[in-house]
Amino acid sequence: MTSKISTGEHMIAARPSTARTGPSILDRSAKIQVVIGIAILVVATVVPSALGLSYWIGVINLATIYIVASVFMGLLLVDAGQVSFGHGAVFGAAAYAVGVACGMHGFSFPVGILFGVAAALVIGILFALPALRVQWFYLGFVTLSAAMVFPQMLFAFDSLTNGLNGISIPFTALNTPTAIGLSILSILSLVLGSLAILTSAIFPKTKLGRRMRVAAASPEAAQSLGISPGRMRFTAFMIASFGTGLAGVLYPPTVGFVSPNAFHLDISILFFFAVIVGGKGQPLGTIAGITLLYMLPNVFLAQLVEYRPLVYGLVAFLVMLLMPSGIIGGIVRWLTLRQKPQAMPALQFSQIVDATQSAKHPVGDIAIEIEGLRKVFGNVVAINNVSMNVRRGEIHGLVGANGSGKTSLLNVLNGFTNSDAGSVKVNGKEITSLKARDVAHLGVGRTFQTPRILEQLGAWDNVQIGLDAKLSPNPTRVSPAFVDSLRDTLGRLRTESIPHGQRRLLEVIRVILTDADILLLDEPAAGLSPEERVAFAGLLRDLRDKLGLTIVFVEHDLDLVARVADRVTVLESGAVIASGDVASVWENPRVKPLFVTVRHA
Ligand SMILES: Nc1ncnc2c1ncn2[C@@H]1O[C@H](COP(=O)(O)OP(=O)(O)OP(=O)(O)O)[C@@H](O)[C@H]1O
Questions:
Q1: Alpha-carbon 325 to chain mean position
Q2: Residues 293, 68: Cα–Cα separation, whole Å
C-alpha cells in the first residue's frame, strides 16, 4: 500500500511508512551471528562442565575471556579507528590488580574486581592521552612500547607484585561445580562473553557508536557535525579498558596464578590479530579469531610445542591472503555478493522539506559578516582581504575559477581553518577563534566537495548521524514521511552502492537534519543530471522559503546559480571582484570574461 503526501507543489507516491516500528537495530547478518556466537559459547561452556572435563573447562573459560578482550580490542580498532598493540597490558593490569589484592592482601574477589577494573582504566587513560596527539602507527608504537614495558614493570616492582615468582590464588569457591557442573566462574565467563558478543553487534548501531565511527573515518565530517574526535577517542579507550578490565579480572581465578610471563607482548598481538583474522566488525569474528589463533596452536597442536609460533604465523598469513576481510568477514561478503544488488532509487527533491513548515526567520538580518579576511598558505594568498556579508534567509552563490579561494573561504566560515587576519561573525558572534565543532553548535552546517558518505557506516547510518547531531529537540524539518521512506530505502542498501550524485544529496539531507540554520554547500550539484539540477534548485528554494535557511553555496554551474541565488559573490585569486544581486554581477565587465573560464572549468 502506498500513501499520498501533499508537498504543496506536487502529489507524490511514497513508500509505506515504517515510522511506528522502524528498522530493527541489528541487521540480519548481525542477528544471526549473535545467536550463533552465544550458542557456541553456551555449548562450549556447558558440555565440558556437564561431563566434568576439568581441562576443557579451564581452556574454554580462558578462551572466553580472551574473546571478551578481543571484542573490546575490536571496538577500539574498528569503531574508533585506533591502532593499539598494547591491549594485553590493560588485560594484564586488571589481572595483576586482582592477584595483588586477593592473593597478597587477602581482599575478597568482588573487591579485587574493583581494583582490577580501576587498574585497567588507569592504563586506558595512559593510552588515551597519547591518542589525543598521535594516530595510527605512531599510536601503535606508543602502545607497543607500553605492552613491552609492562612485564618489566612487574619485575621491577617485585615487592608489590612478587616479581618472577608470581602470585598463586586458588579461588576455590569460584571454581566449585554447582548445577550441571557449572562453576560460578564458568557462569561469569559465559555471561561476560555473551554480553561482549551482543555489545559488538549493538554498539555500532548506537548514537555513540555512529559518532565514534564518523570521528574515526572523517574527523572533518565529525567536527562539522559538532563531534569532537579527541573526545570520541578518549571515550573509546575508556570503554575498551573497562570491558578488557572485566575480562582481565577473571584471568586469576581461571588460571589460579598470575606471573609477568603471562602478559608479554604476544597477548596483545593475540587480541589484535584475533580481530583482524576473525573479521573486523563481525560479531562472530573474535570467536573465530581466538579459536584459530589461540585454541589451534595452544590446545589442538599442544604436542608440537616448538612449532606453535609457526602455526600462529601461518594461520594469520593464510587467512589474510585468502580472506582479506577475515574469516567471518569473508563469509559475509561472499553471501552478500551472491544476493542481487539493490539500486538506489532517485530521491524525490520535492518530498524533502516538510510542507507544513514555514520560514522562521525574518529575511534581511545579516547571518554572516566577513571583514578584511585573509588566509595565506605558504606563498599562496588563498583569501585576500575579503569583506562581504550573507543576509539571513538568502541563497548566496560563491563563484570563481578553480583555485580562486571558494573552499578556503568556506573552511574559515565553518572553523576548519584559522584565518591570518580579519573577522567573521555568525549571527553576530565572532567565530574566528572557535573550533569547527563549536561553529557547528552555533547552527552552521557544512557539506564537502568530496561528499563524506562513509563506507564505515551503513547507508542509513550516514544520514542518521545528522539526526544524532540535531541541535534542538524540535521535530525534524524534513518531512517525516520522507525520512521514513529514506530509512526504509537506505536500510536495504550497501553504502558502496550509492551513486556519486546521490551521495551529495544525502549529505545535504544529513546537514538539514542537524537543524543548522546556515548551510555551507561545496559544489552540491556536481554530478547531477540537468533534470536533477532543476529539481535541486527547487530544493534550495524550499529550504529558503519554507525553512528560512541561509545558504551559501559554491557552484561552477552558473545557470544554476542564476536560477536560484538571491545574491552572488565572485572571487578571483582570493579577492572579491564583485558582489550583489545576480543581474548586476552578471553584467559586471570584470566578471564577464571570468564566467567563460568558469563555464569551461
Ligand atoms: N591546505 C592548503 N595548503 C596549501 N595551499 C592551499 C591549501 N588549501 C588551499 N590552498 C590553495 O589556496 C588556493 C585556493 O584554493 P581553494 O581550494 O580555496 O580554491 P577553490 O576556489 O575552492 O578551487 P576549486 O574550485 O578548484 O575547488 C589554491 O591555490 C590552493 O592551491
A1: 18
A2: 15
Q: Which residues, 6+ apart, have CB-to-CB distance to 429 below 8 Å?
A: 442
Radius of gyration of the chain (CA): 29
Alpha carbon of 137 to ligand 1 centroid (Å): 29
Closest CA to 37 of 205, 197, 199: 197
Atom of ligand 1 nearest to the CA of 410: 18
d(CA 167, CA 301): 28
Q: Half-sphere exposure of 81 toward its Cβ, with a 13 Å CA cutoff?
A: 20
Query: Could you tell me if 566 and 449 lie in one domain?
Result: yes
- Does residue 375's CB lie within 6 angstroms of at least one atom of ligand 1? no
* CATH number (domain holding residue 122): 1.10.3470
Q: Is the Cβ atom of 243 under 6 angstroms away from ligand 1? A: no
Q: Are 405 and 571 in contact (CB under 8 A)?
A: yes
Statement to judge: residues 45 and 144 lie in one domain: yes
Phi, psi of 552 (to 5 degrees): -110, 120
- What gap in Å lies between CA 553 and CA 528, rounded to an integer? 15
3-state helix, strand, coil in the chain (%, to 5): 60, 15, 30
Q: Give yes or no: residues 272 and 384 share one domain.
A: no
Nearest Cα residue to atom 8 of ligand 1 = 408
Q: Which ligand 1 atom is nearest residue 574's CA?
A: 14
Domain boundary among 218, 251, 277: 277
Last residue of a domain, one of 232, 257, 277: 277
pLDDT digits (tens, 9 = 90+) for 364-410: 589 999 999 999 998 899 999 999 999 999 999 999 888 889 999 99
Q: Is the pLDDT of residue 207 over 90?
A: yes
- Name the nearest CA neighbour of 478 among 440, 519, 510: 510
Domain membership flag for residue 581: yes
For atom 5 of ligand 1, which residue has the closest CA? 377
- pTM equals 0.84
Span 522-541, pLDDT tens digits: 998 887 888 888 888 888 99
Task: Give the integer Cα–Cα distance in Å for 484 and 464.
Answer: 11
337 strand-pairing partners: none
Q: Classify 521 as helix, strand or coil.
A: strand
For ligand 1, mutation pick of 408, 558, 572 (most atoms within 8 Å of CB): 408
How many distinct structural domains can be found in the chain? 2
Q: Is residue 449 exposed (0-12), middle (13-18) or buried (19+ Cβ within 10 Å)?
A: middle
Q: Are the C-beta atoms of residues 406 and 571 closer than 8 Å to each other?
A: yes
Average pLDDT for 280-284: 90
Contacts of 382 (CB under 8 A, 6+ apart): 375, 376, 405, 408, 574
Q: What are phi and psi for residue 226, nearest 5 degrees?
A: 80, 15
Give CA–CA dist 593/254, Å, rounded: 79
Domain that holds residue 222: 28-277
Q: Is the CB of 402 under 6 A from ligand 1?
A: yes
